[in-house]
Specification:
This protein is of the alpha/beta class. It has 14 helices and 14 strands.
């Protein structure tokens, strides 16, 4: 009997719940959410929806807060999930994607990069890893929260952590795959896309961000025939990431990885943050394992070096051996202009750093509201 635990049932976790409810290979779905609002009803709807496809799964929901690591460890010990999909964050900065704010302020927020909000993603994930350790269980974690950086920091700090992430490089690889299917008229099975890249590739484009791409069609290398920068920026159309249900992509990615981890058939795919590596890679996932599937002659060290360089576009200078994440000098200037004056993210003061970011967030939202 395979059990998946969903930690967080918000936008992304809600999509993952719906996909899991309709997927074979999972017998029990357990959900947790910090707040008491909405989650139980969402689980009930997923349970009813699963009946449409003829599934008879067990659904359980618990109100649980990762900040209470003792209680979370107790729950983990009782549930003993085969795999955990983690999508809980302290808070989301998404309001800025659509807010009517001064263009100068918007430019500064963009220059500070998504990594400005890293503590909001890293704190809950670190609490989950500690709770799993405390429970003394064997499980696999799929982290959906900025896995390109968070997974690396967790593995550096704890020596272990999420085995895989979701989304990011896989979204880029899927875009290329679908484009090639349209261009050739061939099915996915005839096309192999191998992309080494990171979150920054989606945010800043292939013309700027280091990456490695190989495309084979029926065994023939056709990479030179494809312009990755053009494909990612405009095909099939320019995606309005701020106003679309893009969490469905990341939820689907997380569920695909979770199903592969509890299954026995190898799944060739792309994975962000596998085993704590920076960025994302082509990989084979199966039976609790994630193995890199790099195109020859690219080596593991070369692929990691590409993603370490790409991480600079997300303001990551480096991740220290203890998990401390050091920001780039370029991003620090923008962060200071916003009123955030820290050179690195350290595990010892993650909770305080999150509160500082929440104060900053409220200040920026007020500025946005005043303009609106």
């Amino acid at each position: 009997m395979s059990t998946v635990l969903l930690v967080g049932v918000g936008d992304l976790g809600g999509w993952a719940l719906e996909f899991l409810a309709r997927s074979p290979g999972i017998d029990r779905i357990v959900t947790t959410k910090r707040s008491p609002w909405g989650a139980a009803s969402r689980v009930d709807l997923a349970m009813l929806g699963s009946a449409f496809q003829g599934h008879h799964k067990r659904f359980d929901h618990y109100q649980a807060d990762l900040a209470d690591e003792e209680d979370m460890a107790r729950l983990l010990g009782e549930v003993r999930p085969d795999v955990i999909i983690h999508s809980a964050t302290v808070q989301s900065p998404r309001v800025f994607m659509n807010a009517d704010i001064d263009e100068g302020l918007r430019a500064t927020i963009r220059a500070a990069t998504f990594s400005l909000w890293l503590p909001w993603h890293l704190l809950p994930a670190s609490r989950l890893v500690r709770a799993v350790d405390r429970a003394g269980i064997e499980t696999a974690i799929v982290n959906t929260c900025f896995p390109d950086v968070v997974n690396q920091a967790l593995w550096s700090h704890f020596g272990h952590g999420p085995i895989a992430g979701a989304g990011n490089v896989e979204v880029s690889a899927a875009t290329v795959l679908r484009y090639a299917m349209e261009a050739t008229g061939l099915p996915a099975a005839a096309i192999q896309v191998s992309l080494v890249g990171s979150h920054a590739l989606m945010a800043y484009g292939a013309a700027r961000v280091p990456h490695h791409l190989r495309i084979e069609v029926e065994g023939r290398d056709v990479t030179p025939e494809y312009d990755l920068a053009s494909i990612l920026s405009s095909w099939p159309s320019r995606i309005d990431w701020g106003r679309t249900g893009w969490f469905s992509l990341f939820g689907a990615s997380a569920v695909k990885n979770a199903l592969a981890l509890v299954g026995s058939e190898p799944v060739r795919t792309h994975v962000s943050g596998p085993m704590g590596l920076p960025g994302g890679y082509p990989a084979v996932v199966s039976a609790g394992r994630v193995d890199l599937d790099l195109p020859a002659p690219l080596t593991r060290d070369e692929a990691v070096a590409i993603n370490n360089e790409a991480a600079r576009f997300d303001a990551i200078e480096r991740v220290e051996d203890d998990g401390t994440v050091v920001y780039t000098h370029e991003a620090l200037g923008a962060m200071e202009d916003l009123g955030y004056r820290y050179e690195a993210v350290e595990f010892d003061d993650l909770a305080d750093r999150c509160r500082t970011l929440q104060d900053l967030y409220r200040h920026l939202v007020i500025r946005s509201d005043i303009r609106a």
